[in-house]
């Protein structure tokens, strides 16, 4: 499972706008704006770290790590879970 997940992460890092557009289609403009506001500081570094540090990587790992980073950013538990889930869903389409 690791290769498709890592390939998707690489594509997301190359084309953030595509990810933002997919999240907007899934959840609306408000969630897209929320994602854009936290992406560079709290999502992108986590994705890069997972590419470098994980040998085996699953979508569950991605969602969990995004959630933890978003939670640390100050989002509420439900906001962090929702945004991590929607981001992971959108990434799966890459």
Key terms for this structure?
94 residues; mainly alpha; 5 helices; globular
Structural summary, described in words:
The chain is mostly helical and 94 residues long. It has helices spanning 2-14, 16-27, 29-53, 59-72, 77-91. The mean pLDDT is 95. Helix 2 (16-27) packs across helix 3 (29-53). The two termini are 14 Å apart. The chain has one domain (2-91). The longest helix is centred in the middle third of the chain and has 25 residues, at 29-53. It has five helices and no strands. The relative contact order is 0.19. Helix content is 84%, strand content 0%. The chain is globular.
Summarize the structure.
The protein is mainly α.
Termini separation = 14 Å
Number of domains: 1
What percent of the residues sit in helical stretches (DSSP H or I)? over 70%
Structural class call reads: mainly alpha
- Count of individual helical segments: 5
Topology as a string of helices (H) and strands (E): HHHHH
Low-confidence segments, given as residue ranges, are none
Fraction in beta strands: under 5%
Give the mean pLDDT. Answer: 95
Major sheet: none
Give the overall shape, derived from the CA principal axes.
Answer: globular
**Total beta strand runs:** 0
Rg, alpha carbons: 12 Å
